[in-house]
Design goal:
Residues 37-118 form the Ribosomal protein eL8/eL30/eS12/Gadd45 domain. By secondary structure, this protein is α/β, with parallel strands linked by helices. It has 7 helices and 5 strands; from the N terminus they run H-H-H-E-H-E-H-E-H-E-H-E. The protein has helices at 2-9, 19-22, 27-45, 55-64, 84-99, 110-117, 145-159; strands at residues 51-53, 69-75, 104-108, 131-135, 166-168. Helix 3 (27-45) packs across helix 7.
């Protein structure tokens, strides 16, 4: 009865507020800050061998060692949003990540993502940038302020029922 009374009096209105309304920072500034932190995470993870690129490669990695994955990125461009097969893959990966407490971000601007990660396999073939996993280094758990910032953003988004927040990587 206390919960219903509080709800009727409006004490839980914050649950219906948008992310921008609950954050102290300007929402654009916060999104830019998180996008920069994500770029830092990717740039530092790449030389450590902590990046898995590609939908199928990511699915294999998630199946083998999900506890080692610290972040999952799902990326599309405008023309790929209606690709049904890709959306099915995304749905399955998202479900697996949610089940295993892995933070997920949707990323727009695949061109920028490819720039950060090199974008080309050793044979000159373009990489599948639709799914990117960030994992812990082999011997240690990764402690990185940029990763903490991205993970905090994901957690804050989940609190507001936005389970897969979207980040635009700036050019």
């Amino acid at each position: 009865h206390l919960w219903i009374s509080c709800l009727q009096r409006g004490y839980f209105l914050m649950c219906n507020m948008t992310f921008e309304e609950t954050s102290g920072e300007n929402s654009t500034e916060r999104m830019d800050s998180v996008a920069k932190a994500l770029e830092e995470v990717l740039s530092s993870a790449l030389p450590q061998g902590c990046i898995t690129v590609g939908v199928y490669e990511a699915a294999k990695s998630l199946n083998v060692d999900p506890d080692n994955v610290v972040l999952c990125l799902l990326a599309t461009d405008e023309e790929q949003v209606e690709d049904v097969a890709l959306q099915i893959h995304f749905t399955l990966i998202q479900a697996f990540c949610c089940e295993n407490d892995i933070n997920i971000l949707r990323v727009s601007n695949m061109r920028r993502l490819a720039e950060i990660l090199g974008g080309v396999k050793s044979g000159g073939e373009p990489m599948d940038m639709h799914c990117v996993l960030v994992t812990n280094p082999q011997l240690t758990t990764w402690k990185d302020p940029a990763l903490s910032k991205v993970n905090l953003f994901c957690r804050d988004s989940r609190i507001l029922d936005q389970w897969v927040p979207i980040i635009n990587l700036p050019d």
